[in-house]
Specification:
single chain; 435 residues; mainly alpha; Rossmann fold; 20 helices; 55% helix; globular
Length: 435
């Protein structure tokens, strides 16, 4: 199911999108006019939204006006009542009159703020809408004290409210970096080392594209970022990031998961770079960096939940299965929101959001083709998993790279696949020295 979330308030919009990803492929609009444009485009493409979560209180064009326009448009299109989009109004108002007007105007139900996943789940269940099978539904009786999804989502969203999210660095990146500096290594060797670390790469690229350093065009790679900010600033960033102490790295449960995410991210980065080189593709952004940062949402979520556990906000701690379930379900939207917050280019944000091939955009002839960088990262994501670099045990290991459908779409032949496997294996051998 395609879902549209419409809300002008960022925190509320982010929280609602996190929740609604449990029920289908979710898109967002920041105001009523944008929502109507997306609504009409979806109908023109033959892919209408099955569910629309519409905030009442918005500037310029409020939710009630948008509701009226959407209902009128569906009537003009002669869409039968049973096939029309379900529309739920989201409101912070408690007055019954305004809610009643919305229902009389044609909405299917309403959600009152503050909301949580269980409240929304109950409302949607009445409309015959249930959580996706790939994302286990929480019991309605489960409370935040039982480590329910609503508790996690509240904590995740609060982490975006002015709080800086710090990510851990690879265990041995700092001594390797110091060793290169002491031996007078050329800048390319330093960049080759640092680009393997998600936290350092993310910060250096973000910093180089800040107002202070930014040139006429944004950086596409870590090498460009280091060149722009200079050796002294690079060394300062590495020293600061590697000097931090993280609860996640002291706790075996979190450390084990983070190491799996690290290895998968680095494998995906190399697979993206190797594939782009084999196909001689010039992409909108550096394929290595896109592959490295595609799962940054998983690292952010693990840090957020580790901090929640450390502060005693999760009764009895968070079970490992719950950690995996939560980061698997929400890492795409969290990663995209994080990169958006750090002012990354749209190509990076899109890769973080859409790197999982969940079938949401398939089989429609009217669908716009996906950008090549997303196709590359999607393929690299699956290729890395098929070679054993995955968060979950044995994920895709029974699917040889040559049988991945995207390999055919990208026109990779068996010789290309063989080169990819060989080069990726060699690169990952060197990476293991950093753990």
């Amino acid at each position: 199911m395609r879902i549209l979330v419409v809300d002008d308030e960022m925190v509320s919009r982010t929280k609602l999108k996190l929740i609604m990803e449990n029920f289908g492929h979710c898109e967002v609009a920041e105001n009523g006019k944008a929502a109507l444009a997306m609504f009409h485009k979806a109908h023109q493409q033959g892919k209408p939204f099955g569910l629309i979560m519409l905030d009442i209180d918005m500037p310029e064009m409020d939710g009630m006006q948008v509701l009226s326009e959407m209902i009128r448009a569906q009537i003009e299109l002669k869409i039968p009542g049973g096939r029309r989009s379900k529309i739920l109004m989201v409101t912070s108002y408690t007055d019954k009159d305004r809610v009643l007007i919305c229902i009389q105007s044609g909405c299917d139900d309403y959600i009152a703020k503050p909301f949580d996943v269980d409240t929304i789940g109950k409302k949607l269940s009445k409309l015959g809408i249930h959580a996706r099978k790939s994302q286990p539904k929480q019991s309605a009786a489960q409370s935040p004290d039982d480590n329910g999804s609503s508790h996690f989502i509240d904590g995740i969203v609060s982490a975006f409210e002015g709080k800086k999210i710090n990510l851990p660095t690879l265990p041995r990146i700092q001594p390797k970096f110091r060793e290169l500096l002491m031996t007078g290594a050329v800048s390319q060797r330093i960049a080759d080392l640092l680009k393997k670390d998600v936290a350092i790469s993310a910060e250096l690229i973000r910093m180089s594209n800040s107002v202070y350093y930014r040139g006429f065009i944004p950086n596409k790679s870590l090498e460009q970022a280091i060149s722009r900010i200079g050796a002294a600033a690079t060394e300062q960033v590495v020293a600061e990031l590697t000097g931090r102490q993280f609860f996640t790295m002291k706790n075996k449960k979190f450390r084990t998961l983070i190491e799996k995410v690290w290895k998968h991210s680095i494998a995906c980065a190399y697979a993206s770079e190797i594939t782009a080189n084999l196909l001689n593709l010039e992409l909108a952004a550096d394929p290595f960096a896109m592959g490295l940062l595609h799962d940054i949402g998983k690292l952010a979520l693990l840090e957020i939940m580790a901090d929640m556990e450390r502060r005693g906000q999760c009764n009895g701690g968070i079970p490992r299965a719950k950690l995996v379930e939560t980061i698997t379900a929400h890492h795409g939207v969290v990663g995209a929101k994080l990169l958006e917050k750090w002012k990354y280019a749209d190509s990076y944000i899109a890769c973080a959001s859409d790197h999982e091939d969940d079938g949401a955009d398939e089989d429609q002839e009217t669908s716009a083709p996906l950008p090549r960088e997303i196709l590359i990262v999607r393929f690299a994501n699956m290729a890395a998993k098929s070679m054993g670099y995955s968060l979950e045990e044995n994920e895709y290991t029974d699917l040889p790279i040559e049988n991945i459908e995207l390999a055919y779409d990208l026109k990779l032949n068996l010789i290309d696949i063989g080169k990819l496997k060989e080069q990726l294996t060699e690169e990952m051998k060197a990476v293991m020295e950093l753990f």
